[in-house]
User: Fold these one by one.
Assistant:
Number 1:
Amino acid sequence: MKTWVKEVGVGDTCPFGIHGTFRETKIYEDYSVVRPHIVRLIMLEATLRQNLATYISSQQLESVCWHSSGKKFASSHNDGSYAFWDVDVGDKPSELPTTLYGPFPCKSVTKFLWRPTSKDDFMLFSGGMPRASYSDRHTISVLQGKKHVVFDFTSKVIDFFTIDSTPVCSEGGESPSEGPEALVVLAEEELIAIDLKSEDWQQLALPYLAPLHGSAITCVHHVSNVPDSLWEKIVEAGKEKLRNTYSEREWLINGGHLHEEKESVEKGESEGRELLLSGHEDGSVRFWDARGVSLKLLYKFASADLFSSEEGVDALDSPLANGTNQEEEEDEWPPFRKVGTFDPYSDDPRLAVKKISLCPLSGTLAVAGTAGHIVIAQIAPEADVEISAPEVKVITMNIVCDRDGFVWKGHDQLSLRKTAEGSSSLGFQTSSVLQLHPPAAITSLALHAQWGLVAAGTAHGLALFDYKRLKPVLTKCTLNPNDLSGAGDAPISRRKSFKKSLRESFRRLRKGRSQRHAPGEKRGGAAGGSSPSGSGDRKRKDLASGSGEVAAGGATSPTSQASTSGAAGPLSPVEARPVERQVEARPLEDSLGSMVRCLYFARSFIVS
């Protein structure tokens, strides 16, 4: 079946003399349905362009979909209902229109698809949610018999279609169909594919077009020449982690070859393995295959699983996460199911990743966050090696320990979950967490796996930590001893400059008011006792004639006074000079100089 839509703008004329906005849905070479945005459906004969039948609908039409037999079609409407029509029977629907999520007012069903199968037909449509409760949801409902799922997307649905296993029609008429294999949805922020052959209608893993901004990107780190052993472990861990989340079926859309990849295969060239690590606002680090044109997601490390949420309730210990609320979820109506990876909202801004460092030789990962924490993780050994979940240890280092007058007024540090343990599965396992005080955002990070050291810098100083022996090495405070306010997390404090700027603004305001009226001149009138209306008329007359000049500040210049009496003279250079405001350079804040922006480990010789 081939379906195409043709738009005719408002005011255009259809070949049959109907004015308005039309969409033409064609299924065969002979028949098509024109649906204006009114209450009439018109079936046309495509070759002769003749009106074969007219069908009357009580609601405004949104979409029309043919049945594979060509003898039936379905229509969706702006009140959240859909109806089924028989081509040969009357001008009314074969049965009453169905408002699935009624009886209260619902949003319009913008698109409807009818896919027949040998058992129960598939019905897929977007929209139709109750206006009062779920008008802000972006949904696609899928129904097959008693099975009903409402896929809930985090961004607006642009369009969707199905991938059918066999053609739904043939030259001989109706043919048995196995139904659609997958549902492909184009949302505003991502592309999503759902396997309709699986029992639970799981998502399909995307080989390309993966949304990099599933959560807001806060930092990136590139690693080249990754060893094969580390690469294989990361790929295997990613597959194991997504085994129950995504369908195991391969990607159903094939076609096309990249010219560069084809040439490299013909020449037998082996590309170096490259990783791109992206840190996100939700505390996750995602590993991307950066060898080709499109990035492919390999693995995801979630540092947020180690910490409790902002409200003090562990996200992984909640009843919803443990499955104790499963019965309530099943009884929910409509039966929503979240799909997609785009999630622009973060539970706690302190979870955001600021810096990432990966040693490809040892498989050591360091993740630094906004709350002054550094997570140290090691890649797990081979899959056949049995390991126990290690206990995560937290070590605190005080950078401003030698500053007795320092007071931190920013956010609190993250608290570790009571049941926090390193993952016993494949992938990166957390071994320790370094917490700096004050818990300011990490501005620089350096890792040296051979020495077993990690260094981190903030706006207050730096710390050096031995993550193998779990021992602090040294701390260095870079704050000015004369400025220990610690106003907040912002690396640059503008408290003093704001007070100074406000004070100078008031001074300029008072100075301008004093210069606005000349000495001996009353407020609102000239010195000679003229009325305000006379002064205003005189100024307007001078401006209209072009011979008058008004000085800055609102006082009338001597030249303008002379022009009122009819004697206009040339302006002196002093009078013609515009009023200039003195611009003062702002002093450099001490907190700006205390920020550690870069750290690097180097081997050198010291000459005494």
Number 2:
Amino acid sequence: MKRFSNNALSFSRTLAQQRRCYTQPSSGVHSPHASAVQSSKALTSPYYNQSTSMPAQTRQALGLRGYHPPAVETLDHQQTRALQFLRAKTTALDKYIFLAQLRNSNLRLFYKLVNDQFEEVAPIIYTPTVGEACVEYSNIYPFLAPPGSPDGLYVTINDLPNLKEIIRSYCAKAGLDAPEITVISDGSRILGLGDLGVNGIGIPIGKLQLYVGAAGIDPRKTLPIILDFGTNNEKYLDDPLYLGLKQNRPNDEKFYASMDQVMSSIYEAFPDILVQFEDFQSDHAFGLLEKYQNKVLCFNDDIQGTGSVILSGFMNAIKLAEKKSGVLPQDHRFVFFGAGSSAIGVGKQLQAYFMNHYGLSEDQSKKMIYYVDSKGLITQDRGDKLAQHKVYFARNDNNEDQFKSLAQVLDYVKPTALIGLSAQGQAFTPDHLKQMATLNQHPIVFPLSNPMTNAECTFEQAMINTDERVIFASGTAFPSFVSKKTGQSVTAGQGNNMYIFPGLGLGCLCSKATRVSDGMIYAAAQGLANTLSPAELEQGHIYPALTRIREVSAKVAAAVTVQAVKEKLATEPRVLQLLGQPNPESAALEYVHEQMWDVNQDDHFITAAASS
């Protein structure tokens, strides 16, 4: 390998000469001559099908004259038509179905829409619409893709002995050479909707669409997997149209043994793949993370991704509260309404931040954090048996007093911040919000539950009941609020995981990390917090605009890449030199941009016959 020079520009040039294969077409795509196989690929492959934008000479070369109307359109013309059709749909679910059909027939046009219309399309392909799509998935599945078009890998508990063969067969038929990232769920805790069984496939599919659209992961390198281990949801067990296994879920012993088979088969087939665990019920989410995080390249988005994105928002919210109200960082008190895997993950990230950034001890930082579940404030002497993941944050300083309602907890704790991860819509009542506004000049309120129907309050409710003084972020998109004081439109901050996991995953792939460390998760949060523009800082935003999502993801990926190098977890030779650069962050960002798949890059979509 060439020796790198001492400046980022030379480093970038060297990388350009040695670009990794990751953004190039898979090795099986190019063949030395035109063939019927290539013609079929151009017509039936969602990736290579260009439809009406296929040039006349390509149609001629592939023997496809007469297969399309004579007009040859640009990708922008195709996008105009698709947008008109999309916007003519009257329901969010109809829009979801149309976009799924488009993704499974003309993938390039689909991602052109995602890239150019991200703010409009993201809420359709992911939250909040994906929640409704998952609930209805057995009903809409037959209408989402052409027959035989793989849209996700369905693995039942009965398939495990043959899983390696199933994975290889699926990847071959789906045109996947060597998947680099997979999102896996068992459907047991989908968003705030509970056990949806096999219908939860919509989550892995949706997450991977965001990896592509937000972070430039090559879609041919992605693998969505739903593990159908049964369901305990009686609604689906009794539904004749439910498409999953109609049996109850296994006990813990069989669950973990089955997951061992799944993980072994995946890593035997693809040793370097990144696994993202998604929407497992809380105990299993923590159990899987504890079991695998130090053995293989994996992370849990509900625990670590949520923790990271909310930590990033709090990094900026804490600065804003100090600037506006004079509240010192160490004087904050956080009340979490909800104590599942996501909530505990956020709390642990917050605790680590106060320890690392402000020098607080473990006990000092832990005492800043309070949890409320369905039985009230979580304390060690409440009298009930606590789930294992709740024990660490259980209070022992309550003097045997118990606080059953959220109002009682707010009065007792007098928090500066109220965070909702309960999946209970409207749990933050006007009285709760007014109570927060009485306690704080600028209260921090984060209703983070998804989908929108499960959000603890709306942006409008938070603004009205705090006299427009709230520092706000939600887990789902809310409409802007027109200030009654100034007449100006105020945008709601959105603490959505899409700000973190695409960049985190891209950073892992770029660095070829051997595992995902806590330091890399923290670096992702810090990287996100640093992406606010001067204008966004001036306007009091705590998250960047979604219109800049690809640049935001690139900066998060660069921060993760640098941290992986620092911790000696990176194995990609071209990034191991980063720390020797005068500005490793800048060099890493240039490198990351080099790796990002681009829907506008024509040579990613040319079949061998067309280019010969």
Number 3:
Amino acid sequence: MLLFLLLKQVRSGNLVSNIGFKIKVILDDVLEILKVWRRSKTPFKASISQMSKLYTFIWNEMATSKQKIKEELHSGPFIFVPYTSGSSLEEMLPGIFLSPEEVCWHDSTGSLDQMKEIPHCSLTEVTHHPLNKTLSSTYPGLRDFFIDGCGVHETPPLCSYIQILMHLSAISLPSLSANAVFQVFLKWSDGLQTGILTPEDVIYLKECLLKLELTVLPTEQDKWVSLHPSFGLVCWCDDSKLWEQFKNVDNIDFLYFGKLNEVEKQILQTKVSVLMQALGIPALSEVVSREAIYYGLADSSFKASLVGWALPYAQRYICSVHPDKYIQLKQSGFNFLNHLQVVVVEKLYYRNAIKSGFGTSKKRIECGCLLQDNILYATRDSDSHAIFTELSCLLFNGTPDLHLANFLHMITTMAESGSTEEQTEFFILNSQKVPKLPDEESLWCLSSVPSLTKNDDSLQTSFDSEKMEEQSYQRSKRKAENNPNWPPVDWKTAPGFSYARANGFRTQATSAQHGCGPQKKDEDDSEGRVMRTDNVVPISIDDDWIIEDDSATASTALVLSDNNLEDQSDQAYNQTDSGMEVEFDPTDFDITADDPELDSSNFHKRDQLRTGTPNAMQAARTGRLGELVAFKYIIGKAGNTVVKWVNEDSETGLPYDIVVGEENCREYIEVKATKSRKKDWFNISTREWQFAVDKGESFSIAHVLLSNNAARVSVYKNPVKLCQSGKLQLVVMMPRQQKDFSIVS
């Protein structure tokens, strides 16, 4: 280049020509220079100004030799991309030559630009990844040359974003890249809506996301996951109330798209949700079902006859308004009718549960009616509109159809008000525009099943003893004798009524499942007790408790009566207001800094955990008994009205066992129990520890040491802080067999 400049100063053109030097650069010279540069073994440096002039020269020459130039350029990489940005266009920068397939003009999602902003991420680290650089900021005036002349993509192809996200997840934390992922999902959503993203593309993306190694989905736990089953359930949150119930459940990961504004939240719910459904990423509400919980069985004949009477009208409505749905049901042989059952109970609740056994909510909500699978649960006081709303869920794959429910409710109201069948038929035909069924269609009806004549234990899901259940059944049986059957007298000619009357207006009883219905929060159980007792170990203790303080160890001994704690009944303990002598000492709830038992110097005196022979049943009984002892102890300190034992009726799986206080000021207590005085350690799950970290001063561990006639309770407030200060210590237990582990000496 210097020689060329010197020759320009020579005035004699003949002299330059005679020497053999060129005085004009032609296209072939530039293409040859490019070949030399990209074959060079040494690092290449150039300025953006210099390369822009070179590409401008080539672009001008393309007007006459476009095909030849494109062939020459595509014989190897020719687009210079600097590793870093310079302070000026004239600055010499190191860089690399890339092919058109490895760059694009710009990326509206910001994913590629974010790679440049990540510390310690240079282009040398990403050269083996496609589409890792944009050109719009480097060569802003050469858009036409690169896109029209060289075939560079204006934006990355939609499917290539999966590789871009893969690399982004390898060099960035999910919390830092969450919004970039959202923008990619939005890009895919637009493509799906316009048809640019084809069904084949959707299948490809779905297959990629199912791969174990392709972890490109950011979660609220700040980790990258894929849809591979090993990561558990991956879903996105469309219901904040449900999220509150399940945010601490193991094996459930919620997608995190960063802090979205109100417009972006609306886009997520409408546009992006369609894409995620196509990719197999469910919404939280889609994986949550409702599990029926109830007390006492009642006679079902009245409600069953109402449903049986309404079914032909529902059939008529579906056949007229939703003919495609009717054909679908008909092709299945109206199979749902063979299993539809109506069960009336004294008290009805539900709790939310994740399908496939991933977890259940601790809250229970009272309701008057709900459908679970093919069982329609109702209370005595449930109204017809609620029943018909739940019935519509059976016909529309779990989604209520209010139009059908309103239609059936209006007909029912007319019957109750004394309208004749002719008047109602006129209303259906002229006002509702619902014609009669074709003559060849058989009317829908409930299956013929004997009436409930005894207490069915398979339907009972409650805490009541057998005696209480029997009393409840006898009460309901007496009440049922006065129940009139549906419909009113003037309606004995209504379609389907003759069948119901012939079969006693009765339906089959079956096992309790889960469903949905009108919601009413159970005020008596704000913590939402789980109404299952299958895996509860029955325990009880004597009521005569005396609490003595032990100030030396900042723990408390619960001295029981002479009855041995091993003496356990077959019935779960339910009473908490027993007679107790209580001496309240507020210091018992906190561990003081100068506690001699918590001196960190004690830890070095032993090098192994003291363990005993494990016994699963005994461990379960010890755990239950320890929780009960801690529960009684804390009641003595805080009072019965503000203390809840969340596992009193069933093991909930929550990261705590006892809750103290009202909703705005709660203390969470995890109980650890043992019968061995030598055992100075206990297991704590990662979920419990994470909960302890989150709650801080609001979380305590109650360690219960049980013996034949006494129990000592030690309460450790904020165990995370105690571990940080050295007063408690964490231990990682290694397996005895280490064949699968690499050991470095």
